[in-house]
Automatic annotation (TrEMBL):
UniProt keyword annotations, A-Z: Iron, Iron-sulfur, Metal-binding, Oxidoreductase
SUPFAM superfamilies recorded: ADC-like, Formate dehydrogenase/DMSO reductase, domains 1-3
Organism: Methylobrevis pamukkalensis
The name this protein goes by in its record: Putative dimethyl sulfoxide reductase chain YnfE
Family annotation (PROSITE patterns): 4FE4S_MOW_BIS_MGD
Matches recorded under CDD domains: MopB_3, MopB_CT_3
Pfam families hit by this protein: Molybdop_Fe4S4 (PF04879), Molybdopterin (PF00384), Molydop_binding (PF01568)
Record family assignment: Belongs to the prokaryotic molybdopterin-containing oxidoreductase family.
Gene3D superfamilies cross-referenced by the UniProt entry: 2.40.40.20, 3.40.50.740, ADC-like domains, Dimethylsulfoxide Reductase, domain 2, Formate dehydrogenase/DMSO reductase
GO MF, any single term: molybdopterin cofactor binding
Length: 695
């Protein structure tokens, strides 16, 4: 039992889109307000640590610019000219417009658009119940996880791995393509524990010297999109030097001999030319992991946001198989634990509703969709009406110029339910004020750990802010959408979900705060076989069928290499675009969230692009100078910062700043593309060729 000893401490869970899903202790003041937030010390993964931006959450929850009343647009689209309205009037208008769109163009012309601004299962995913009950268009979620998950599953057959807490029991932790210090600080807690108690080595692999690279014992800074070459060379050395576990491979892998033959030419010299690393760096890394049985590969998302990202993820996971790392406590390759929670989400999502398999519109292609691209629309009706929750596409989606053009359409009706007047909300016809996580009930599951957690309502919402579930229920009533889930409260939903998933009841979860869902050691380490019928890890995946997309594989999937390899489909630099741009996360923002809080903005400063001093000299770009950066998709203006912790020809822009924070009002996603990463979609946010010039 974890009942609070101090009645002024409430229990909750961080709802943000972060693999750490921290268990929180929340200071509550006598007048019902929120004080400091801390990581729960008795949660084995959170272990008392949370990031700085959430620790000072009172700044966000009590923000003077929070939305507190419904608004209806009065002036032109995007003019910011709104009038306040009652909830009833605002919802009546939304329902009227949705019914009108349905009558004129069919139900699929309505597109509920959502994402993971909150990761709570009831508040985030309840929008699907409304969608399915009305036969609206579906959303194919591609913006974040597809490339990474598909690459991992291609090898293991399942999205699950060794207990993440075992990082603390490793002798080597390889933090690959994730800036953990910034994006999931708890990885560092466990890695540093291993260093302190076992003398473990920490390796970080990135495309610039991040804070994570700085804290590592070995930092490998390579060219963007070349990770598979590094992985291949490490496997080449493993076979060459006798570090490949041949007995393990014979039992647990599909075609180790084919792989070994294929890797014969993937030498460290070959990989050095591709990655920009030195042969010595590659050899040293290969020796370290090859001679350290307890090597924990912590594979992140960053290196998969490349057009060859799925192939790179699969190649990186393959290293753990060649070395047999999976067999050891503190060893193996971990990416995400999504598959350990077998949850029955029927009541939340309405997956029992017949006829729900409507067209599945690609989330990342929202710009193309709203501007009438026939292929992106699946040759169906145009999108005429939208409900947007938990996401800010005008800032975060690729091909921003198209996104903005789409949202500016006069014949598109948009309702945005938000906590702040985001750049998406500013383009809406109706804006509804939303609660924050401490003001509503929900259940959360950790991607980077193994807990299910309950976060209950602790404080009252300001003004008339209401939770997502309320909007689903009230719109359903007005639209004639029927499902038993609309008659239930969020707490009843959580209880139903738990009972029908074999995880007890809400009362039990609430009393214990969380439930540890970690599978047995043998299962998590795939000691009884990988999750394919023959129990073997796939070096040679059946790419077209790794996941079963109902629309079939996408991107240039037919050209994917059959065995782990460097696949040169990235946006290479050329004479007109001499740089490769990576749009990495900012430590004090979380996607577009926290760009509204003064503390975070102060820490981040201003939109900047980091460039190697020698490249800068060559292009006449002074440190701190205002520059223009562009490609065939658009251009942005921001300030240059000289930085030598990256390869020549690579530039880094941290953070999704509001478009309005840039001098010309255009944000970084004007430069990113929405074409699909093969074979299951995804946006290659870190794979852009650009030019740069002083202004
Ligand atoms: N502070 C903060 N935390 C966040 C977020 C945030 O924006 N800010 N976003 C949240 C979300 S939605 C997610 S999905 C997670 C994502 O968290 P991560 O798994 O960390 O993934 P990314 O943020 O995409 O990028 C991580 C790192 O990958 C590097 N990278 C880019 N291309 C390559 C490459 O080709 N090879 C290698 N080796 N590295 C490369 C980038 O430079 C960056 O440092 O973080 C979450 N947490
Ligand atoms: N250039 C570039 N672009 C990127 C990325 C990148 O690395 N580089 N990363 C991409 C990735 S990985 C992701 S996941 C996307 C994420 O992009 P978004 O989906 O926009 O992510 P967030 O900023 O986390 O959340 C969006 C909004 O949800 C709102 N919100 C939070 N909780 C609630 C709630 O309970 N109810 C309602 N109604 N609203 C709520 C917040 O106020 C916030 O404005 O961005 C992508 N865009
Ligand atoms: S580390 Fe991630 S989950 Fe933990 S408090 Fe920060 S944003 Fe939330
Ligand atoms: Mo994400």
């Amino acid at each position: 039992m974890n009942k609070p000893l101090d009645p002024r401490i409430g229990h909750s869970v961080c709802p943000h889109d972060c693999p750490s899903t921290c268990a929180l202790d929340v200071e509550l003041t006598a007048d019902g307000r929120v004080g400091r937030l801390r990581g729960a010390t008795d949660n084995a993964y959170t272990a008392g640590v949370i990031c700085a931006k959430v620790a000072r959450y009172s700044e966000r929850i009590e923000h003077a610019r929070r939305l507190t009343v419904p608004l209806i647009r009065q002036g032109a689209k995007g003019s910011g000219d709104f009038v306040t309205a009652s909830w009833d009037a605002a919802l009546d208008l939304v329902a009227e417009k949705f019914l009108e769109a349905e009558a004129r163009f069919g139900a699929e012309s309505v597109w509920p658009y959502y994402y993971a601004g909150t990761m709570g299962l009831v508040q985030r995913d309840g929008i699907h119940r409304l969608r399915h009950a009305k036969g609206y268009s579906r959303q194919f979620d591609t913006i974040c996880t597809n490339a990474a998950w598909t690459g991992y599953i291609a090898g293991t057959g399942k999205l699950a791995g060794p207990d993440p807490r075992e990082m603390a029991l490793a002798d080597c932790v390889v933090i690959w393509g994730t800036n953990a210090v910034a994006t999931q600080v708890n990885v560092m807690t466990h890695a540093i524990r291993a260093r302190k108690t076992r003398g473990a080595k920490i390796v970080a692999i990135d495309v610039y010297e991040t804070e994570t690279v700085r804290q590592a014992d070995m930092g490998l800074v390579l060219r963007p999109g070349t990770d598979a070459a590094l992985a291949c060379a490490v496997m080449h050395v493993a076979f060459r030097d006798g570090h490949a576990d041949r007995a393990y491979l014979a039992r647990y892998a599909d075609c180790p001999d084919d792989l070994e033959a294929h890797l014969a030419t993937r030498t460290p010299e070959w990989a050095a030319a591709v990655t920009g690393l030195s042969v010595a760096e590659i050899e040293a890394f290969a020796r370290l992991v090859g001679t350290t049985p307890r090597t924990f590969f912590r594979l992140g998302y960053g290196f998969t946001r490349q057009r060859n990202g799925t192939v790179s993820m699969h190649a990186a996971a393959s290293v753990a198989t060649v070395l047999g790392s999976w067999q050891h406590e503190g060893g193996g390759a971990f990416h995400n634990n999504g598959a350990i929670y077998t949850l029955n989400k029927m009541m939340i999502e309405g997956t029992d509703i017949p006829g729900r398999m409507t067209r599945n519109l690609d989330q990342s292609k929202i710009g193309r969709i709203l501007t009438g691209d026939a292929e992106a629309l699946h040759h169906g009706p145009r999108v005429a009406a939208m409900l947007v929750q938990n996401t800010n596409p005008v800032s975060v989606a690729p091909e921003q110029s198209l996104v903005r053009e789409g949202f500016a359409r006069d014949d598109l009706f948009v309702c945005v339910h938000e906590q702040f007047m985001t750049e998406t909300a500013a383009m809406a016809d109706v804006v509804l004020p939303a609660t924050m996580f401490l003001e509503h009930d929900d259940i959360y599951k950790g991607g980077g750990h193994q807990y299910l957690l309950f976060g209950g309502k602790l404080v009252e919402a300001p003004g008339e802010a209401r939770e997502n579930h309320y909007v689903h229920v009230e719109l359903a009533r007005r639209l004639g959408a029927e499902h038993p889930g609309f008659a239930m409260s969020p707490r009843e939903h959580v209880d139903w979900l738990l009972r029908h998933s074999g995880f007890g009841t809400l009362a039990e979860l609430e009393a214990g705060r969380w439930r540890d869902c970690q599978p047995a050691f043998r299962t998590a380490h795939y000691l009884d076989g990988f999750a394919y019928p023959d129990g073997k890890f796939r070096f040679r995946p059946d790419w077209a069928n790794v996941k079963a997309p109902n629309d079939g594989p996408m991107g240039p999937w037919e050209d994917m290499p059959s065995l782990p390899d460097y696949w040169p489909v990235i946006e290479e630099a050329d004479t007109a675009h001499p740089f490769r741009l990576v749009t990495a996360p900012a430590r004090s923002f979380l996607n577009s969230t926290f760009t509204e809080t003064a503390g975070s903005v102060k820490k981040e400063g201003r939109p900047e692009v980091m460039i190697h001093p020698e490249d800068a000299a060559l292009h006449g770009i002074d440190d701190g100078a205002l520059v223009e950066m562009g490609n065939g998709r658009g251009r942005v203006s921001l300030h240059a910062r000289h930085f030598s912790g990256l390869k020549r020809g690579v530039v880094i822009a941290e953070g999704i700043w509001p478009n309005g924070a840039h001098d010309d009002g255009t944000g970084i996603n004007a430069l990113t593309g929405a074409d699909s990463i093969a074979p299951f979609g995804g946006a290659a946010f870190h794979d852009n060729k650009v030019w740069l010039r002083p202004v």
